[in-house]
TrEMBL record:
Name this polypeptide is given: histidine kinase
Residue intervals of the PAS domain: 7-76
InterPro entries: HATPase_C_sf, HATPase_dom, His_kinase_dom, HisK_dim/P_dom, HisK_dim/P_sf, PAS, PAS-assoc_C, PAS-like_dom_sf
A single MF term (Gene Ontology): phosphorelay sensor kinase activity
Gene3D superfamilies according to UniProt: 1.10.287.130, Histidine kinase-like ATPase, C-terminal domain, PAS domain
All copies of domain Histidine kinase, residue ranges: 198-413
Record key words, sorted: Coiled coil, Kinase, Phosphoprotein, Transferase, Two-component regulatory system
Organism whose genome encodes this protein: Dawidia soli
Length: 413
């Protein structure tokens, strides 16, 4: 080993005691001197590295490229780390490779450039890094497996929750069906009770009238009192008409409740349709009551179910007649509004008290001022149900003691 390059004894001692391997190389790439650590790193005996080419300490695959790096450094020498950001590998005498870190510096000796390489074996650090990397990879794999398990368990939990939700929904549907069935049964029982109550009251009076009139007719016949006989015949007819209206209400409600009302729309010519209704209602009008009809020329026909519309208007006219005095007119008119046809039935009857109006379409409801006027309290409820079947809307205006107007709006087509 040529220690002439390290002239001072103290410097020589520092050179040899460094924990890093130090190699000094001339411009030709020949090793001039190396400390003991460097010789041990590369597996050489003391003084064995001196005179060896620097590239001999590199794996064969790096040597050609390193010559160019060395020349570039000689052309512009400055202290720096070698291979920053890359893994550097050195070659031992026995041919094994090991990872290193190298810092470069330079000095002038006898006016010649000498490059100093400070070399550290980082095998242990690399092993630790590799172990850490493997741990990280294992952790990533474990995390992925854990995430997969969590996903599977979450999916299983979601499926369980979905099944529970379906079971709960099914149970709620069953409870709702049971509630509806109970409500339906309650309504039917109420309907039966109401029917019995109304039948016992409403049927008794006209039937009694029929029975008494029949007996009196027999007496008047024997006496040949024909005028009185005709009077009681009219009373019988009126009573029979009343019973017929009551039965029609119950039959209509029964069909509506059972969903047995079929709707078949067809063109309805208003002039003929309203004339037929006006003729049909004559049988129950009070003396002096007249039904007038009016419709615009722009609306000659409407597309709807004629039987359902007839039942609606027949019922409204019947109510108008019952709750109006003899001689009071009843007006039936038709208007076109916003693509719909509006039928209006106007009377000059007793009107509807304000407090009763919100219940007017309830089943079995009768206004507080109905008094002795016969009725079941089903008519307007049935009218509302019929209007719903033909996509209609029903409303009314009423002034107590002055009369009422009912509006039934249905689609034009």
């Amino acid at each position: 080993m040529d220690f002439s390059l390290v002239t001072n004894e103290a410097y020589r001692e520092i050179f040899q005691s460094m924990s890093e391997g130090i190699i000094m190389v001339d411009e030709a790439g020949t090793i001039a001197i190396a400390n003991r650590v460097a010789e041990q790193l590369f597996g050489f005996a003391p003084g064995g590295l001196a005179g060896a080419p620097l590239e001999s300490l590199l794996p064969e695959r790096y040597r050609k490229g390193h010559v160019n790096f060395r020349r570039a450094f000689n052309a512009d020498p400055h202290p720096r780390r070698m291979g920053f950001g890359r893994d550097l590998t050195a070659l031992r005498r026995d041919g094994t490779e090991f990872p290193v870190e190298i810092s470069l510096s330079f000095t002038q000796v006898q006016e010649k450039l000498m490059v100093m390489a400070f070399i550290s074996d980082i095998s242990q650090r690399k092993q630790a890094e590799d172990a850490l990397r493997r741990s990280e990879e294992q952790l990533i794999v474990y995390a992925a497996e854990l995430e997969k398990k969590v996903e599977l368990r979450t999916n299983a939990l979601n499926q369980t929750i979905s099944r529970l939700e379906e079971e709960i929904a099914e149970r709620k549907r069953a409870e709702e069906d049971a509630r509806r069935a109970l409500e339906r049964e309650r309504e039917l029982n109420e309907l039966k009770s109401k029917f019995v109550s109304i039948a016992s009251h409403e049927f008794r009076t006209p039937l009694s009238t029929v029975m008494s009139s029949v007996s009196l007719i027999r007496q008047y016949k024997e006496r040949q009192e024909y005028e009185k006989q005709d009077k009681h015949i009219d009373r019988i007819k009126s009573s029979v008409n009343h019973l017929t209206l009551i039965l029609n209400d119950f039959l209509s409600l029964g069909k509506l409740e059972e969903g047995k009302v079929d709707i078949q729309s067809e063109p309805v010519v208003l002039s003929a349709f309203l004339d037929e209704i006006r003729e049909e209602v004559q049988s129950f009008l009070k003396p002096g009551q007249v039904v007038t009809t009016a419709w615009p020329q722009a609306v000659m026909e409407v597309w709807t179910d004629p039987r359902t519309l007839r039942n609606i208007l027949f019922n409204l006219i019947s109510n108008a007649s019952k709750y109006s005095d003899p001689g009071k007119p009843i007006e039936v008119s038709v208007e076109q509004q916003n693509g719909r046809v509006v039928f209006q039935v106007r009377d000059q009857g007793i009107g509807i008290p304000a407090d009763d109006q919100k219940h007017l379409f309830d089943r079995f409801f009768r206004a507080s001022n109905a008094g002795n006027v016969q009725g079941t309290g089903l008519g307007l409820h049935i009218v509302k149900r019929y209007a719903d079947l033909i996509s209609g809307e029903i409303s009314f205006t009423s002034v107590y003691g002055e009369g009422s107007t009912f509006h039934v709006s249905i689609p034009h087509r």
